[in-house]
Design brief:
Blueprint: H1 2-26, E1 41-44, E2 47-50, E3 55-61, E4 64-69, H2 75-84, E5 92-93, E6 98-101, H3 107-144, H4 150-183
Antiparallel strand pairs: 1-2, 3-4, 4-6, 5-6
Helix pairs in contact: 1-3, 1-4, 3-4
């Protein structure tokens, strides 16, 4: 029972760290990369569709992205979605591909992105700590129902504390790497 609770908690904490990694990938840096478009949904025939399902991405230069839609009818929707997003780029459509030239990030914009990254990291840390709290509540309920002893519950709590520390440290490392990437000119 305790092993199942700890295994479930670890799985949920891994998910929180992975979610933070995806969130950090969507934050724009000075270089172009396809992960910037992970969160964008395009109105495709009345259905919100992830941009990755509608096009291929090429990065021929550090600050240029070429988006090749599978369906040319989706080009207007893709352009509108990119223009309305918080990426700060203006798409250029030549009929076959959409070209995005990413402007150089200003110091002010970099600081905004760092603030956003710190906020996302804190959300991930809170998710990890909430998972720990739920797991401890579950073990305390087992103690209360006299299904396990208090010593087993304390041992489980120590294991959960170690897992929590490991996952919070992983989020902190991701944040540190993202901050370094953002400050790189």
């Amino acid at each position: 029972m305790i092993a199942d609770i700890i295994k479930d908690a670890e799985h949920r904490m891994d998910g929180a760290v992975e979610h933070a990694r995806e969130e950090f990938g969507a934050i724009r840096t000075g270089r172009a990369h396809p992960a910037m478009f992970n969160k964008l949904l395009v109105d495709y025939y009345g259905t919100p569709t992830p941009l990755q399902q509608l096009a291929t991405f090429q990065v021929p230069e550090a600050r240029v992205v070429l988006i090749s839609p599978f369906d040319r009818n989706a080009m207007a929707g893709i352009e509108k979605t990119i223009r309305d997003s918080d990426l700060g780029v203006n798409p250029a459509n030549d009929g076959n591909v959409i070209r995005l030239v990413l402007p150089q990030l200003t110091e002010e914009r970099r600081k905004e992105y760092i603030k956003l990254a710190r906020h996302k990291a804190e959300e991930a840390r809170v998710a990890v700590r909430n998972t720990r709290r739920h797991a401890i509540d579950a073990t305390n309920k087992l103690v209360k129902d006299k299904e396990i002893g208090e010593d087993d519950a304390r041992g489980a709590e120590k294991q959960l504390d170690q897992l929590t520390k490991k996952h919070v440290d992983a989020v902190d490392e991701l944040l540190k790497a993202k901050e370094a990437e953002l400050m790189e000119v």
